[in-house]
Amino acid sequence: MLEWPGGARGALSLSFDNLGEAAEIELGAFPTDAPLGEHFTAKGPLRSVQIELMLRKLRATFFVEGLNTELYPVELLSAQLQNHELAYHAWRHEQWGELSAAEQADNLARGLAAFRGLGKGMGVEFTGMRPPGGRLGAGGLDVLREAGLRYCSPAGEGAGVVDGIALLPFQWQHVDATCVLPPLAPVRVQMTGSPDPLDPDVFLAHLEAEIDRLSREGGFATIVLHLFMLDWFGKGRLMLLLNRLRDAQREGELWIARCGDVAEHLLSHPEVFHGGATLDPTSWTP
C-alpha cells in the first residue's frame, strides 16, 4: 500500500480549474463588447470558496490560466497569501494535446514569466500544471521537465513518478463538468449506467462514496471543481463536501493536501511510487 504522511490510508487533493473569462475567450464565447477583468467567477465564487476553505483549515490547488496574471493579479496573490497553491492551466485554456511541442514550450514559458512577474516583484513560482483537455500531447513530459516543473495532473488514475516528474492524474468521474457536458456522456454511463446529465445531489453522493472508498482502500484522487459551476452545484452541497474532507483530515483517514505537496511527497519516495500512474489517452472534450 502507498505510504502517506501521518499514517493516512489515502491522499486527496481538492482542486479548482479555470478562472475568469480566459476559457470563454479561447472558445470564442466571450462577448466582444464585454469588459475584461470583471468576470463573476473572480469577483464572487473565488472569494466565497476561499472563506469556506479557511473556516475548515483546508488548502486547495487552483489551476488557472496565465491570462489571469494580467486580469486578476490581486485575486491570484490573495489566494497565494492564504496558502493555497496556484498552478498552470495553459495561457488561455488552449487544448494542450492539440499543440505542437514547440507551442507547448512557448505557452509554458509565457506563463512562467507572467506568474513570476506578479505583484511588482512578489511573484509566484508554480511547480505544476493541468493540461486543458487532460492530454499531454506532442511535448509529453519533456516540455514540462525542461521548464523545471515538478508535476503534472493529466487525465488518468493513480499517482506515480516518471523520470523525475510526479504524475497526479485526475479521473473524469471526479470532475463536476462531467455531469453536464455532452461529450462526457460515456463517463456518465460508467458512473450511473445512463448518459443523461447528472443531478448535483447525485454527483455529491458519488464524491462522498469515492472519499469513503479512498479512506478504506488507500491511493490518491483529486476532485476537480469549476468556479463557474458552483451555482449548479450549490453552496449547501459544497459545504457538505468540504465538511466531509475536513472530517477525513481530522480523523486521519486521508491526507488532504495541495497537489504540489503531494508531488513533493512522491518525488521524495520515487521507489515507492514508480509506475503508479496510468494516463487516459482519450479526449472527452469537443
How would you describe what is shown here?
By secondary structure, the protein is α/β, with parallel strands linked by helices. The chain has one domain (5-274): TIM Barrel (Alpha-Beta Barrel), CATH 3.20.20. 40% of the residues lie in helices and 15% in strands. The chain has 13 helices and eleven strands. The strands form three sheets. Strands 1, 2, 3, 9 and 10 form a five-stranded parallel sheet that branches. The protein has a four-stranded mixed sheet with strand order 4-5-8-7. A two-stranded antiparallel sheet has the order 6-11. β7 (160-162) and β8 form a beta hairpin. α9 packs parallel to α11 (235-250). 44% of the residues are buried. The model has no long low-confidence stretch (mean pLDDT 95).
CATH class, named Alpha Beta
Counted up, domains total: 1
Taken as a percent bin, the fraction of beta residues is 15-25%
Shape: globular
Rg, Cα atoms, Å: 18 Å
Mean pLDDT: 95
CATH topology: TIM Barrel
Give the secondary structure arrangement, pairings included.
Blueprint: E1 10-17, H1 22-27, H2 40-43, H3 45-55, E2 61-64, H4 68-71, H5 73-81, E3 85-88, H6 101-116, E4 128-129, H7 142-146, E5 151-152, E6 156-158, E7 160-162, E8 165-167, H8 185-192, H9 200-217, E9 219-226, H10 230-233, H11 235-250, E10 254-256, H12 259-268, H13 270-273, E11 277-279
Parallel strand pairs: 1-2, 1-9, 1-10, 2-3, 4-5, 5-8
Antiparallel strand pairs: 6-11, 7-8
Summarize this structure briefly:
With 286 residues, this protein is α/β, with parallel strands linked by helices.
Features:
286 residues, alpha/beta, TIM Barrel, 11 strands, 40% helix, 5-stranded parallel beta sheet
